[in-house]
Amino acid sequence: MRRKVAPDSSDATGGEAGRQDLLQLSSAICNGEDLGPFVRKAFASGRPESLLHSLRHFARSKESEIEEVCKAHYQDFIRAVDDLRSLLSDVDSLKSALSDSNAALQSAAGPLLSSLDAYLEDRAVARNLSAALAASRLCARLLDLLARANAHLAADDLYLSLRAIDAVERDFLDAAPHPTIRRMLLRLIPAVRSHAERKIAKEFSDWMVQIRVASRHLGQIAIGRASAARQREEELRIKQRQAEEQSRLSLREANSSSIYSLEDDDDDDDDDLAAALAAAGGGGSTGSAVDGILRFDLTPLYRAYHIHQTLGLQDRFKKYYFENRKLQLTSDFQVSSMTPFLESHQTFFAQIAGFFIVEDRILRTGGGLISRSDVDALWETAIAKMVSVLEDQFSRMQTANHLLLIKDYVSLLGVTLQRYGYTVDPLLDVLSKHRDKYHDLLLSDCRLQVSEALAADKFEQMLMKKEYEYSMNVLSFQIQTSDIIPAFPYVAPFSSTVPDLCRIVRSFIEDSVSFMSHGGQFDFYPIVKKYLDRLLGVVLDGAILLLVESGGLGVSQAMQVAANMVVMERACDFFFRHAAHLSGIPFRIAERGKREFPLKKSRDAAEELLLGLLQAKIDDFLILTDTVSWMADDSPPNGNEYANEVIIYLETLVSAAQQILPIQVLRRVLHGVLTHVSEKIVGLFLSDSVKRFNANAVTGIDADLRLFESFADSQSHLFGDSEESGVNELKMALLEARQLVNLLMSNHPENFLNPVIREKSYNKLDYKKVVAISEKFRDSSDRLFSTFGTRGLKQNPKKKSIDALIKRLKDVS
C-alpha cells in the first residue's frame, strides 16, 4: 500500500492566476487535448518551472484518486487471488490428463500420418496426370484443327482453312499447353492468312484478265440480242402496219390472217423469254453467280471478296477492286491508230458494254462489293470518253455508209445498256448532232450516183423480157399505169435511168430512216422528208436540169427525158409514201404535207428543150417559104410546099411520140409546135424579105392553115373523153395566124376597128402588126409602089377599106 503524500503548502499561495492555469491544464488533460500550446506558452513566458510544477501537482492529485480506487476494490482483489490458488490443483490434474491423451494420440496417429503423406503424394501425381491428359486432349484437338486446315489448303478451300485457323486462334492460342506450341501458333496463324491472301489475290488477278476477254464476248452477245430484238420489232411493226392498212380498206380476210401472224409472233417472243429465264435459273441455284443468259462467271470474284471479308479486309478489297476495274476501263478506251475505227468500233463498244453489264450484275448480286455511286462514276467516265471518241471519229469520216454503220452499232449499244438502267442520252445527242453531216455525205454519194446513171443512159425505151424484170423495175416503185401485167417482151415508156434513179432515191430513204430511227426521236418523218426534198429538189432536179441544159440531147433523147419526167412524177409519190411507211406513220398523214412535183424545174426544162428542138426542126422546113410567090397570079391549090413538109414531119412525130410521151405532154408539145408555126406564119408577113403580097398569096397561106387545122382535127383520138376541148386547144395555137388571114381575106377589114368585132374575131392580133402587114398588102393590079397604070380605073373597095384601116390605126398609134 502506497504512502499518502501531503499537499504542498506553497501551491496555495500561487495566486489566482496560477489556479486559473491549473484549471485549464487539468481540463485539457482530462479531455485528451493537445498540451503543446501550454508548453509553448510556458516557454514563451520564460516560466517553464510553473508548468512543470502544475503537471507534478496534477499527477499527485491523480495518485490520490488512484489510491482511493484501490482502497475501494482491495477486497475483490484478495478474493480473486484466492480463487486462482484454488484452481491451481485442478490445472495440474488437467495437465497430466492432457499429457496422457497426447501420448495415446501420438501412438495411434503415426500410421495415419504416414498414410496421409502417401495420399497427398498420390494426389499430386494424379493431378499431374490429369493436367497431362487435358494437355494431350487439347493438343489432339489443336492438331485435328491444324490437319483440317492443311487439308482445306491442299483442297484450295481457303474459306474453311481460314475458319479453322480462326478457331485455333480463338480456342487454343491463349490456352496453349506449352510455350513452344504457343510460339508455333503465333508464327503459323499469320503465315496461313498471308498464304490465303496471296492465293486469292492471284486468282483475282487471273479473273481480271479473263473477265476482260469475257466482257467483250458478253457485250457482243448482248448487242446481238438487241439487234435480233430490234429486227423482230421491225417485222412486227411492218405486219401491224399491213394489218392497219388492210383493216382500213375493210379487207376482212387479209385482216384476219395478219392478226393470226401477229399472235404467232407474240408466241415466239414468249418462247424466247421462257428459254432465257430457264437458262438463267439453271445457274442461279448453286449460288455461283453464273449468268445463264450471257454466260459469264463471277465466282472467283465473289470468292475473293468472301475471303477478304473473312480476313477482315473487305474495305481494302473494295478499294482495290474499284481501282483495278477503273484502270481496266481506262485501258479499254484506247483506240488504236493502226486499225481503222470502222473495223474496231464493234470491239470497242462491245468491250464497254460487257464491262458495264458485268458491273450491273456485281452491283445487284455482289453483296456491297461496289456501290451505285461507284458504278455511276465509272459510267460517267465511260460515256464522256465514248462521246469524245465519237465526236473525233465522226469529224474525220467522209463516207456516209461508214457513219451509218457506226451509228447503228452505237444505237444498239444504247438499247442494250438502257435495259440495265444506264443513261445513254449523251450518245444519242452525238448522233443527232451529226445528222446533217451524215445526210450531206449521203446526198454527195447520191449526187455522184445520179450523175453516173444519167451519163450511162442512152435514153432509149427500156426493154423487159421477163416478169421479174417488170416487177423489179416497175412494180417495186409503183410507177405502173395499170394493175394488169403486160405481155413480154415489154417496151416501157421510160429509159433505164428511171429505175436506176428510183433505186438511188429508195436507198437514200432507207439509209435516212435507218439513221434517224432508234436515235431517241420517235416522230422523225418530217426530218426524213426534209432531206428527201433536198435530194429530189436539189440533187436530182439539178442533175437532170444540167443534163438538159448541156445541149447534147437530140429530139428522140429529149422526148425520152420528157417521158421519164412524167414517170418520175409517179415515182415521187411512191418515195414519200415509202418514207412514211418506213417512218411508221399512216399514208393519210403523209398525204397532208404533200408538195408540188419536186422535179418541176427539170420537167419544164425537158419539155422546153424538146419543144425547142422541134421548133428548130420546123424552122428548117420553113426555109422552104423562100419559094412562096407573094405576088402570084394564082393561088396554090394544095397549099405551099413548106406546109406539106411540116405536116408530114408532124404526123411522123406524133406517130413516134405516142409510144413514148404521155398524152398530156404530147398535147403540150403539139400546142407549142403549132403555136410556133402560127408565129412563123405571122412572121413571114412581117419579114423584111416580103416587101408586098397580094390576095393570092394570102389564099395560099389560108390553104396552109387549113392543112394545119386539119392536122389538129386528126389528133382528136389522142385526147380520149376531152376530144373537143383537145382539138379546140390545138386549133387555138393557130389562132393568131388564122385571125390574120381572115382579116386579110375579109371584104370589110375596117371591122377590125370595131371593139366588139375585134374582141370576138381578132383578139389575138396586135394592131401594130396589122398596120405593118396591111401596108404590104397590094391588089393584083398594083405594080411596085405606084398606081400609074391604073390611075383611070376605079379603086378596089377592099383596097380602099384596108387603106382606111391603115390610116385609122396610124392615127390611133
Key words describing this protein structure:
single chain; 813 residues; disordered N terminus; mainly alpha; 28 helices; two-stranded antiparallel ribbon
Which helices and strands appear, and what pairs or packs with what?
Layout: H1 15-31, H2 36-44, H3 48-72, H4 74-154, H5 158-171, H6 179-248, H7 252-284, H8 299-310, H9 314-332, H10 341-365, H11 372-396, H12 400-418, H13 425-433, H14 435-456, E1 463-464, H15 467-473, E2 490-491, H16 497-516, H17 525-549, H18 555-583, H19 587-592, H20 600-622, H21 641-657, H22 663-686, H23 695-714, H24 723-733, H25 735-745, H26 755-761, H27 767-776, H28 797-812
Antiparallel strand pairs: 1-2
Protein described:
The chain is an all-alpha fold and 813 residues long. Helices cover 75% and strands 0% of the residues. It has 28 helices and two strands. It has a two-stranded antiparallel sheet with strand order 1-2. α1 (15-31) packs across α3. The chain is elongated. The protein starts with 14 loop residues before the first helix and ends with a helix. Residues 1-13, 250-295 and 780-794 have low confidence and may be disordered.
